[in-house]
Amino acid sequence: MPLLEVKGLSAAYGLVPALHRVDFYVDPGEVVGILGHNGMGKTTLMRAIMGFVKVTGGEIAFDGQSLLGQSVNARARAGIGLVPQGREIFPNLSVEENLQVGIAGAGGDMAGTVAGVLDLFPRLKRLLDRRGGALSGGEQQLLALARCLCRKPRLMLLDEPTEGIQPSINDEISETLQELSRRQDITIVLVEQNLDFITGLAQRVYAISNGVLDRQIPREQLTDRRAVSEFMGFVTA
Ligand SMILES: Nc1ncnc2c1ncn2[C@@H]1O[C@H](COP(=O)(O)OP(=O)(O)OP(=O)(O)O)[C@@H](O)[C@H]1O
């Protein structure tokens, strides 16, 4: 059974449609990529799964249970974690405090959880006392990923983790996510415009274009930029 199954999902902002009958699934342990240009509906899709965007039709099932009608908090408790675009961190808290703040009061071994997550982020380990706002964009993205992991999600939704980030840190983010998917029982859905990043990580890749997501890009075509452009809704000359 898929861990996440999205069927015929539609969403709109007022009268303007943003997602049209989106269909895809993610099996447990997979890294699935969704490739799309600006404004094609990637963020809307991630936010709809997390419960921030009202859906107008279709179904989202997580672990066999419908998510529709469930609050954002209930979805988070069920094991879904969103790392939003724009690296949601607290700029005035230190790196260490940023990691603690989301799980304070949740019970359990907070120090152990933070230490376990930091094992995957050697760069952050060296910056524990640095204010979030004084980190580079790439370091902030690593911190946003680490913050999400402290809540021990089973499914991570990543909204354009490489946006505006230096290629050198992209490689580090990619390696961290690869290591994470090898080491832990975690499933990842990643929306991106960055083809190289997505093909380096994802086992399967879908294309989203104008809110329509119904086609997986065959693995062997991911190296053919013209074919990928066509899947993304732009036919090159
Ligand atoms: N709050 C909103 N109100 C009205 N329209 C919106 C809102 N948010 C997004 N849209 C519109 O919905 C469509 C999809 O936007 P979305 O942010 O999901 O795209 P995206 O693929 O994530 O783009 P980007 O790569 O630029 O972040 C766009 O046409 C956008 O203008």
Comma- or semicolon-separated keywords:
237 residues, alpha/beta, Rossmann fold, 6-stranded mixed beta sheet, binds adenosine-5'-triphosphate
Strand order of the largest sheet: 6-7-8-3-9-10
Shape: globular
Give the beta-strand count: 10
Topology as a string of helices (H) and strands (E) = EEEHEEHEHHHHEHEHEEH
Fraction of residues in helix? 25-40%
> By helix and strand content, what is the structural category?
alpha/beta
Oligomer: single chain
The radius of gyration computed from the alpha-carbon positions, rounded to a whole number of angstroms, is 18 Å
Pfam families: ABC_tran
GO biological process, one term: L-amino acid transport
Keywords: Amino-acid transport, ATP-binding, Nucleotide-binding, Transport
Protein name: ATP-binding cassette domain-containing protein
